[in-house]
């Protein structure tokens, strides 16, 4: 009945059935790492609520959550659940440039992670500050950058945008080939 959704490395959303209303009481919510009962925190939540996001949690940790309906009308037994947060997000560990031509090159990266919503590939000539951005779906691990200038060094930055909202980046340099004159 009490359950969690939208689990990330540092947060999750709790959902529970509507047992109370604004007028009939409130909920006491206790939560903390299962291994450390002493570090439990307690929150009071209005009886009108049926969900709550807990954040600032530790990654890869199992939390014990107890929801106690404090009703002035009926007795409701406490509901409990255990939720394990995800591992901490890791950045792309390698960015590879390949198939370099005068006006394009291929960018790929690893690893591909389930916790990534999308990747942003930023690229611009060195030196310089004109940067373009390509959005790449989180399921993909490569893209082709086109419409480049020949014989130019580009800085390419791959940013992983995680479902939790965090971002991690890694950069590499790429050189385009000399173009045909004419």
TrEMBL record:
CDD domains: FN3. Residues 1-89, 91-179 form the Fibronectin type-III domain. One of its GO terms (cellular component) is extracellular region. Its main location: secreted. It comes from the Eukaryota. It is found in: Secreted, Extracellular space. Pfam families: fn3. PANTHER family: FIBRONECTIN TYPE-III DOMAIN-CONTAINING PROTEIN, TENASCIN. The keyword Nucleotide-binding does not apply. The gene is Vwa1. This is VWA1 protein. Keywords: Glycoprotein, Repeat, Secreted, Signal. The keyword Lipoprotein does not apply. It comes from Catharus fuscescens (Veery). The lineage of its organism: Eukaryota, Metazoa, Chordata, Craniata, Vertebrata.
